[in-house]
Design goal:
By secondary structure, the chain is mostly beta strands. It has one helix and 20 strands. A hairpin with a 6-residue loop joins strand 7 and strand 8.
Length: 254
């Protein structure tokens, strides 16, 4: 079974408020699922500050890679940031809150939840996310970000985009489209998509805009499972003509 993501639509954020905090509606996370949260926001400061995310669900959202600015030729600078989270226990119904360093002029949040086929190692999803790539562009169409070589053919990919337009992009064949929330102060949209197989390029089709993109390789449970099988059962294979208890001689695998 491949890595798959669905959007928790109840937890989507799309706000035009001038504020320093933006809260989601309540949702209930599941244990050992990878959560990826893409946040886009803007403000009128010289540079939009990197947000943080707190939650009452028991999860801990950790920033993934670099936060990317775009629309750098305008006074309302935009920023795209992606966060990861995962816990093996202690989760409950709750919300998440995006907090900015200074007042924003709007924000969006897209929360993706994985199936049970992702690596559960590390802390807060660190064992499930690797190969992080970013890109941005001013006044260009079809946002694109290129990933490095995948570590396994079992792995998938998730990508988030921020735009200075609200036009909904189109994902390529083989990708699953997720949320596209937006706000209008200034005009800003966001978009996410995922794929349960390696892809060196994450791109979407949309008209000319200023944009940012962040894509990550998601490590599949199968990659870890293969390594476990090789060690967990190694004591059940006998070397050739090995003597085992009770004097019985077993012939090993050639």
């Amino acid at each position: 079974m491949a890595v798959e993501f669905t959007e928790i639509t109840a937890a989507q954020v799309a706000s035009t408020s001038n504020a320093t905090t933006y809260a989601s509606a309540a949702f209930t996370p599941l244990v050992n699922r990878l959560y990826l949260l893409g946040v886009v926001h803007s403000d009128a400061a010289p540079e939009a500050t990197v947000p943080t995310v707190a939650t009452t669900t028991g999860l801990a959202f950790v920033q993934v890679g670099s936060s990317i600015v775009f629309n750098t030729i305008a006074s309302n600078l935009h920023r795209l940031t992606v966060f990861r989270a995962m816990k093996p226990s202690g989760l409950s119904n709750g919300t998440y809150t995006i907090t900015l360093g200074d007042a924003g002029t709007g924000a969006t949040g897209i929360l993706l939840e994985s199936n049970d086929q992702v690596n559960t190692g590390g802390t807060d999803g660190s064992g499930a996310v690797t190969n992080i790539s970013t890109n941005n562009g001013d006044a260009s169409a079809n946002p694109t970000v290129t990933l490095g070589a995948f570590s396994s053919n079992d792995n998938g990919v998730a990508a988030f985009f921020g735009l200075d337009i609200t036009t909904v992009p189109t994902a390529p064949a083989g990708w699953t489209t997720h949320g596209d929330p937006n706000y209008s102060s200034p005009t800003t949209g966001s978009f996410a998509m995922s794929r349960g197989a390696p892809s060196s390029t994450a791109t979407c089709t949309v008209t000319t805009s200023d944009w940012a993109a962040i894509a990550v390789e998601v490590i599949a449970l199968a990659s870890t499972h293969q390594a476990i099988v090789g060690t967990e059962f190694q004591d059940r294979y006998y070397s050739k003509n090995e003597t085992v208890p009770y004097g019985e001689v077993k012939s090993g695998v050639e």
